[in-house]
TrEMBL record:
Organism: Enterococcus caccae ATCC BAA-1240
Taxonomic classification: Bacteria, Bacillati, Bacillota, Bacilli, Lactobacillales
SUPFAM superfamilies: Winged helix' DNA-binding domain
Coiled coil: none
Gene3D superfamilies associated with the record: Winged helix-like DNA-binding domain superfamily/Winged helix DNA-binding domain
Protein name per the record: GntR family transcriptional regulator
Transmembrane segments: none
A Pfam family of this chain: GntR
HTH gntR-type domain segment(s): 11-79
Keywords (A to Z) from UniProt: DNA-binding, Transcription, Transcription regulation
Record keyword Chaperone present: no
PANTHER family: GNTR-FAMILY TRANSCRIPTIONAL REGULATOR (PTHR38445:SF12), HTH-TYPE TRANSCRIPTIONAL REPRESSOR YTRA (PTHR38445)
């Protein structure tokens, strides 16, 4: 999976890496047990500092999306069950996003249609 980094984006590069890998896992482009490039390889492939990739991998590991093993490298973790900390973060972030949608006058119907359209990519 080749990542696309936008150096002009306001989203930090480590977050762009995290976001794209999470989407890759959710859309099954990355399978559980699949080996990811090493920090050095990934940094070379996308043209960023190794510390940036290391930060992304650390965050993904802490959230349970990837596993690291000194012998086997970094790999995609199995899909997770719903846990209370994720549920709380999901609710907080969704509430903020829906508040912004309300400010921009996006209707509930439009929001529901968009959610359905996006969620279908992950099934």
């Amino acid at each position: 999976m080749l990542l696309e980094i936008d150096a002009q984006s306001q989203t930090p590069i480590y977050q762009q890496i995290c976001n794209q890998l999470i989407i890759g896992i959710a859309t099954n482009k990355l399978q559980p047990g699949e080996i990811l490039p090493s920090v050095r390889q990934m940094a070379d492939e996308i043209g960023v500092n190794m510390m940036t990739v290391s930060k992304a991998y650390t965050l993904l590991k802490n959230d349970g999306y990837i596993l690291t093993d000194r012998r086997n490298g970094t790999m995609v973790a199995a899909k997770q069950s719903l846990d209370p900390p994720f549920q709380a973060r999901f609710s907080r972030e969704l509430e903020l996003l829906l508040a912004e949608a309300s400010i921009h006058q996006i209707s509930e119907t439009m929001i529901q249609e968009k959610i359905k359209q996006i969620y279908q990519k992950f099934e």
